[in-house]
Amino acid sequence: MLLASENKKLQIENQRQKRKKAQRRTYIAKGGVLSGAKGASRASTAEEGAATAAIEGAAAAAAERPQRAPRKCSICTSTEHTAHTCPRRQPTS
Questions:
Q1: Count of domains observed in the chain
Q2: In which domain, by residue range, is 47 found?
Q3: 3-state SS assignment for residue 4
Q4: N-terminal to C-terminal alpha carbon distance within the chain
Q5: pLDDT (mean) for 7-32
């Protein structure tokens, strides 16, 4: 049972790495001499596409990610401060 679950985790990670490796890459230069204006134009177009894809990917990842619990003090369990600023904290000598 333990080996089966570990095997499943490895298969999932392997699939993730395959998808990452298969992602399409773009290059500015396509052969020949490239003028400064044309290069800047191609670079900005590539950056806009990458930015749009990154925003969409981040939104999808945020939707899948579970909500984190709010920070709380480990001394008195209040969510208004942390242990570093807790009024019950013992002064160090």
A1: 1
A2: 33-58
A3: helix
A4: 52
A5: 82
